[in-house]
Description:
Elements: H1 4-18, E1 25-32, H2 50-58, E2 60-66, H3 71-80, H4 84-87, H5 106-112, E3 116-122, E4 140-144, E5 156-159, E6 162-165, H6 170-184, E7 190-199, H7 207-210, H8 231-257, E8 264-270, H9 292-295, E9 296-302, E10 312-314, E11 318-319, H10 323-330, H11 347-350, E12 362-366, E13 370-374, E14 378-380, E15 386-388, H12 404-420, E16 433-435, E17 443-447, E18 452-454, E19 458-459, E20 469-470, E21 478-485, E22 489-498, E23 507-512, E24 515-520, E25 549-558, E26 562-571, E27 579-587
Parallel strand pairs: 1-7, 1-8, 2-10, 2-11, 3-4, 3-7, 16-21
Antiparallel strand pairs: 2-9, 4-5, 5-6, 8-9, 12-13, 13-14, 14-15, 17-27, 18-21, 19-20, 21-26, 22-25, 22-27, 23-24, 23-26
Amino acid sequence: MVNRCLVSMLLTVLISTSSFAAPPNVVIVLTDDQGWGDLSVHGNTNISTPRIDSLATDGAIFSRFYVQPVCAPTRAEMLTGRYHPRTGVRGVSRGQERMNTDEFTMAQMLQQAGYATGAFGKWHNGSQPPYHPNSRGFEEYYGFTSGHWGNYFDPMLEHNGEIVRGKGFIIDDLTNKALDFIEDNKDKPFLCYLAYCTPHSPFQVPDKFYKKFDGADMGMRHREGDELEEIEKTRAALAMCENIDWNVGRVLDKLDKLNLADNTIVIYFSDNGPNSFRWNKDMRGRKGTTDEGGVRVPFMLRWPNGGVKPGTRIDNIAGAIDLLPTLAEFTDTTPLGDKPIDGQSLAGVLRGKNETWPERMIYSIRMSKTVSVRNEQFMMDEKGKLYDLSTDPGQRTAVNDQQPKITAEFNAAIQKAKDEILLKDGRADDRPFLIGGSEEFNLTHIPVRDGLSEGTIKRSGRAPNCSYFTNWTSKDDRMTWNVSVEQEGLYEVTALYTCPPEDVGALVELSLNDTRLVAKVSEAHNPPVFGAEDDRVQRGSESYVKYFKPMKLGTMKLGKEKGLLTLRALEIPGDTAMEVRLLLFRRLS
C-alpha cells in the first residue's frame, strides 16, 4: 500500500525545488557604428533585419537608449557600469582606450558566480595584461583588441593572446567561435560577449549580402539628403547590417536547438551612432558627436523566463551604464569592488514592475572634454543649447529663452559632470605600456599602434590601430614605446616583420635602459599589400594590410623597470631595414 503522506511530502519537495530556476545565460551582441536607424524594426525600409527585430517582438525594445559617441568609452561603461572617464578611458587609440586596472567588469562578476565567460570580437579596452580581456574576467577570447582593423577577410586575429589567422569573413568567423563556446558550455551558466566590428569601416562584406544593395535606390535618406549622405557608404553599411542580422539568427537558432532560449538573456545594441550620414529618423549628428544621432542607439533585450513580456516597449531613458547593475539583479550576483556604480538596474521596468521611473540624467561625453546631458524630456547639447525632445527630437529649435529654469538646471548638471566625472587632464595619458603585466599570462603584445617613430619612418595608415611602421631607411631612425616591466624575468622577443629579398641583412638593436639585444634580418618575407580589392568604398583612415612573419630577435633579461623601449638599426645594407607590425614578449622564467 502506497504511503499517501510520503507521496505528498515528495510532491511538495519536487514542487518547491522546481521553483528555483537555474541561473540565466547571458548573450550580449554589441555592434560597431550601427545607427538607431539601421534596423527595419525602427522603420527603415532600405533594410531587412528580421532576426534582430524578433528580439523586440519576443522581448523588450527601448526607444531612447544612450551610449557614448565613440567605441571604447561605450564598451568600458557597459563592462563596469561607470562613466568611462572614471575608468581611465579617454580615447580610442595609443593607450587611451585602457580601463584602469582597479576596475571590475561584469565578466569578473559573473565568473566569480560560476559562469563560463567568453568574448569574441573587438575588445578595444586595452591590449596588454592586465588590460587584456583574459585578465578582465573572460577565460576565452578570440578577436582583436584594437579599434580599427584593416581587413575583414581571413584577418590576423588572436586567440587568448596567441596570433592566429581568421577564417572567412570576420563576423561569420566570430559567430562560429561564439557558437562553439555556447555548445561547449550548454550545461552551465555562461556569458557570451559577441562584439562585432561592423558596420565600422573598412566597408567590406561578402558578395551575397552586398548584391542586394549594389546600385540600389535608397528610398529613405538622411535628413540632409545629398548634401551630406554618401550613398555608397549607405549601401555598404546596410549590407553589413544584414550580414549581422543573419549571424544573430544563427545565435538564436543555436539557443533554440540546445533548448536554452527561454533561460538566456539576449541583449542587442550598438556602441555609437552611424559612421556615415544615412537615414536615422530626424536625429541630428552621427558617430563622434554628443547629439541624438551620435549617442542614441538600438537596444533590445529578450528573456522569456525572466518576466520580460513579448512586445514590451520602454520609452524611459537608459544607457550602457545600466547593463552591469541590470545583469547583477537578473543573475542575483553582486558587483565587485567598492567603486560607485553610475548606472541603475533596468530589471524592474523590464518586468513591468516600476510604476514610476526615477528622475535621472544621462551624460554623453566626447573625448573627456565636452558634455551633453539628457533627462526624460530635455537635452542640452555641448554648446549649451537646450532642446525639448518631446516636441523637437531633431534638435532644430533651442528653447533656452522659453525655459530659463530648466536651462539653469542643465547648466549646473554639465558643470557637475565636468567637476566630478571628466578627467582633469583631458585626453593626456602618460601611463606606460606594460610588459609582463600579469603573473597568469606570459605573453605581451607591444604593437606599432602604441609606439612612436623618429626620422624617416612612417605609419602605413592614418589611424594607428592596425598600422605598421614602414620606410625605415636610416640608422638615425628609431621606434620607441614608453613601457614598464611588471614581472622580472627572461623574455623571448619576436617581431612580426616584412623585408624584400634585396634588403636582407639589416642589423637591428632592441634596448630598454641598459639591456640590449642585437639581431640580423636574415630571411626575406615580402608579401603584397592587400585589402583594397575587398573594399566596397574607398577607405579613409585604416591601413591596408600584409601578412607579417614572426622573427625571433632573441632574449632579454628584464627587471622591474620603466623606460623607453627602442628599436633602431645598426646596419642597413639595402634601402630599408624592415617593416614592423608588432613585438611579442614571452616570459620564459
